[in-house]
Specification:
It is an enzyme of class 3 (hydrolase). Keywords: Hydrolase, Metal-binding. Residues 41-400 form the Amidohydrolase domain. Pfam families: Amidohydro_3 (PF07969). The protein is of the alpha/beta class. It has two domains: 2-51 and 364-423, Urease, subunit C, domain 1, CATH 2.30.40.10; 53-357, Metal-dependent hydrolases (TIM Barrel), CATH 3.20.20.140. It is built from twelve helices and 18 strands. The radius of gyration is 22 Å and the shape is globular.
């Protein structure tokens, strides 16, 4: 007797008609026609079953604060930073917890069950860290939340930035963050990368830095990040987030930079929705897309992740907690048009992001956590095209969210009475 069996699932790797058996919160078998009964059985015939979506780059201390204290009328990064500076002194622990929990509810409804959030440590009150540490414990039964100590105003630039970050890590934040391009000088930025990597090595923590989030091709702190990663023996434990300046760098320099990143086993996390909105703001035409060089990084064997970054906050007035929306934008911005490209984008939203966060026991193999999402789509390509409805969300073998199938009733003479958008893709025998 299994606790749960999902029957006749389509898997992201292309297998169809596969059963997934679960016992005691773990997957115990993934194969066709598993014999035996279960306390709960779900028929997933014709539906894609995937590990949960993962967001390796988010700002939960700011989420759902749109309009406080006013709107970002220019939609620019700098006005967003200015707005956050106005809002931050008014933040209260209770308000931060309420907004964060509401966002976690939304995330679960979207099959998003692991999030890495950057937490601003520039205000020495550290009310952001205090609140999100409580939220991390509150949501642990249904969502994995990692917290990055993020010196939003600059590790050296903020008056008490160095001491505040150390205190935040002492409080129990999980990851060392940074923002070298926001220091007063390039030299200060370089020094901050070295100092923060040293702290991570001494404390045995991973690193996740906002790095080169600018159109300036001379912002090259990712090179320093890769070099310091190797120097401190942090290979595989460091994420460079945004990396938008790489979009504007000359190809010769990039031909040197990417192999260095690969040697350091750096993870590169782009944020397609935000990068396409905030970058290129000083351009007339043509306007730069601003997202980092995703296909080239993938070709070099670098693990690439995609983050949501912001949802309804001072920097981004849109967003829905939907990682398929993030992937949908990435396909367009990076011009990843082939079927193989789209399958890779889906893999990034799941396995690639999980690798960037260092999640254990993640996946669809026996022994993995029984965390699953059933989508109203037959495969990964269709899930991205449709930004498919999440029919069932499962955490450790327990159903924690359900959404009815999205169907439309028609009243048209001589036409079908119902439309299912997930049934419209051509029945191509070989997508390749």
């Amino acid at each position: 007797m299994f606790g749960l069996v999902v029957r006749n699932a389509n898997l992201p790797d292309g297998r169809e008609g596969v059963d997934i058996a679960v016992q005691d919160g773990r997957i115990v078998a993934v194969e066709p026609a598993i014999a035996g009964a279960a306390q709960t059985e779900i028929d997933a015939t014709g539906r894609l079953v995937t590990p949960p979506f993962v967001d390796p780059h988010f700002h939960m201390d700011a989420t759902l604060s749109l309009g406080l204290p006013r709107m970002n009328t220019s939609g620019t990064l700098l006005e967003g930073i200015e707005l956050w500076g106005e809002l931050r002194p008014t933040l209260t622990k209770d308000a931060l917890i309420e907004r964060a929990l509401r966002y976690c509810d939304l995330a679960v409804s979207q099959g998003l069950l692991a999030i890495r959030s950057h937490i601003d440590t520039s205000d020495p009150r550290l009310v952001t860290a205090e609140a999100l540490l409580e939220v991390r414990d509150m949501v642990a039964p249904y969502l994995t939340l990692q917290l990055v100590a993020f010196p939003q105003d600059g590790y050296y630039r903020a008056p008490e930035g160095v001491a505040s970050l150390a205190r935040a890590l002492d409080m129990g934040l999980d990851v060392v963050g940074g923002i070298p391009h926001f220091e007063r000088t390039m030299a200060d930025g370089t020094a901050s990368v070295e100092a923060l990597c040293r702290i991570a090595a001494d404390r045995g923590l991973p690193v996740d830095m906002h790095c080169d989030e600018t159109d300036d091709p001379l912002s090259r702190h990712v090179e320093t990040l890769a070099a310091q990663t190797i120097r401190f023996g942090l290979e595989g434990r460091v994420v460079g987030s945004h990396l938008t300046s790489m979009h504007s760098m000359d190809n010769y320099y990039v031909s040197k930079l990417i192999p260095l990143m690969a040697e350091a086993r750096l993870h590169a996390v782009a944020n397609p929705l935000i990068n396409i909105m905030l970058q290129g703001r000083h351009d007339t035409y043509p306007r730069r897309r601003g997202m980092t060089r995703v296909p080239e990084l993938l070709a070099a064997g670098i693990n690439v992740g995609f983050g949501h970054d912001c949802v309804m906050d001072p920097w981004y007035s849109m967003g829905s907690g939907d990682m398929l929306e993030v992937g949908h934008m990435a396909i367009h911005v990076a011009q990843m048009a082939s079927v193989a490209d789209k399958q890779k984008v889906f893999e990034i939203l799941t396995y690639g992001n999980a690798r960037a966060m260092g999640l254990d026991a993640y996946g669809l193999e026996a022994g993995c956590h029984a965390d699953l999402v059933i989508l109203q789509a037959r495969d990964a390509v269709e899930a991205l095209r449709l930004k498919a409805n999440r029919l069932t969300v499962i955490r450790r073998g327990k159903i924690i969210a359900e959404t009815p199938a999205r169907l439309t009733t028609l009243s048209l003479p001589g036409r079908p009475g119902q439309v299912d958008a997930a049934a419209y893709a051509p029945q191509i025998v070989n997508w390749q």
